[in-house]
Each structure stands twice: as C-alpha cells, then as structure tokens.
Amino acid sequence: MYTLNDLQLFIRAANSGNFSSAARQLQLTPAAASAAIKRLELALQVRLFERSTRSLRLTAAGALFRDHCERALAVLAEGEAQLQAGQQQLAGDIHLAAPSDLTRAVLSPWLDEFLALHPQLRVVLHVSDALHDLLRDTVDLALRYGDMQDTGLVARKLCGSRQIACAAPAYIARHGSPANPAELAGHNCLTFYTGGRPATAWTFSDGKKAITVPVSGNRCADDSALVRQWALEGAGIVYKSALDVAPDIAAGRLLALLPGYLGDAVSLFAVYPGAKHLPLRVRALLDFLIGRFGQYEVTAHLPVDSPSA
Length: 309
Prior knowledge:
Elements: H1 4-16, H2 19-25, H3 30-44, E1 49-51, E2 56-58, H4 60-84, E3 92-98, H5 100-117, E4 121-127, E5 141-145, E6 153-167, H6 169-175, E7 189-194, E8 197-198, E9 201-205, E10 210-214, E11 220-221, H7 224-232, E12 237-241, H8 242-250, E13 255-256, E14 262-263, E15 265-273, H9 280-295
Parallel strand pairs: 3-4, 3-5, 7-11, 7-12
Antiparallel strand pairs: 1-2, 5-15, 6-12, 6-13, 6-15, 7-8, 9-10, 9-14
Helix pairs in contact: 1-2, 1-3, 1-4, 2-3, 5-8
C-alpha cells in the first residue's frame, strides 16, 4: 500500500515536473522518490507519469488523481488545524474565484466582515472575468453569472438580477439619454468579452416582446471592471448586471437609462466541486455569502428576481 508521504511526493512531483526537486523538498533521495512513485502506480494499477530523459509529465489518469489528492490532503490539513485550534476556530486558506466588478463593488467589504469573524482564515482571491476550471486551478468556490453547464460541479443560486444600461452624468450631459433601445445605435457603447467574444448585442423587453439591438463603441476589454471604470469616467454607456453597478447608481456616479425597458435577467451562482465533503472553512464562507446575498437589495430602479438560496 502507498502512504501519505507517497501522496505528498506525488503532488510535489506533479506540480514541479521534476522528481529530484520533489525529493529534495521532502528530504528524500531520488531513488527513494522513484520507488515511492512506482509503489503508488502499482497500488493504483495506472501509470501516473510519462517519463523521458528530459521531461516528466502527468498522464490523464495522473492529472485526475492529483486533483483528488490535493482535495483529500486539504481536508486532512483542515482537520489538523481544527484539532490544534481546539475545534474553536476555522483555519487555513480558501481559494475564491469571482468576477472583477462584483468583487470590487460588493464582495470586498463583505470579505472584510467574514475575515474579522474568522481571523485564522485566509481568503485567496482569483479575480477574473474568465471562468476558472475549479479542479485544475484548485479553486474551492467560484461565483459565476448565468446557467452552469459544468459536469461534476454543484451550483447554488445566490440571487437574481438584471442587466441594466447606465452612464455617467457627464456623458448624458454631453450626448443626451436614449429614449428607447434603438437609439443606442447613436451612442458610444462600452462592451466587454463574454465567452471569448465581445458582447455587441444588448437585449431588452418592453413587457411584450424582446428587443435585441446591435451596439458599437470605441472601447472594448476583457476586464469588466475596466469597462465600468470607462463608464464612470463618462466615456460611454455600459450594460451590466445591476449587482455590479448598484453602488454607483445609489451614489449618483452612474444613471440608470431606459426606465421603460427591462434588461436581460441574470442569476449569480456559487459553484464548487461536487465532492461529498465540503471543507468546513469553505462551507462557512458559502453560508456567509448566501446570507449576505439573501439580504442584499439591488438599488437600481429596475425590478430583479427575488433572492433565492
């Protein structure tokens, strides 16, 4: 049978791509490290690495096993931390992935509250509008907009919102406000990439039918926070989740446009690997966010879906 030390060696070798480096980290000889990997492969009856004189890389089976090993060792580390803390305090790292605008507008102050409640925890934020592979990137919890298609992941709805068109007062003062979606064609519309493509079609509803209009402008980015910043600076009109811009609208930094039209409905989900055991520290953060989003009221003038746990 393989041992816990064998698993630790396997993870270090998989992440470094080098047996000798992994052996040195664990104060083992290269021969002992090689024997440990062979013992592990024999017990599992799979080949974990493709080896050559110049390279070492994981097989598909090795990559899958590494993901499970990392989660299992993280659970053990948490158990040790709980015992050392007398089971009174949560401890360890939580890797959280979230969209950039949502993090800055809503999430950051909430994390301050959460960490004040649990001083032995550390939140490692992966702030990006790209969708993280939770298993590959070892992310514990991700916040994502839209329907979830990932096999093997659990999605928990945090709340509903709607897309909203808005602009800074300075922009409206210079260019006026569109009276209907069709008039967006005469405005500088700030767009960003979703799913690797620029979102250049905005959809609204007048209560009877959906209205999709093509939009264009002189700026586009793959960072939605930058696009929001352009809007705050008066560069054009932006179309975003009301969650992301609610603080700006409440403070008057942005003005909600097209009051007679509803933007697309969009839901925010907490997503995590579908393992049987969710570490207590991750569960604590998930429960905290469910509570915060459940109480959160989007201050934009557009109606939103009722928050849902």
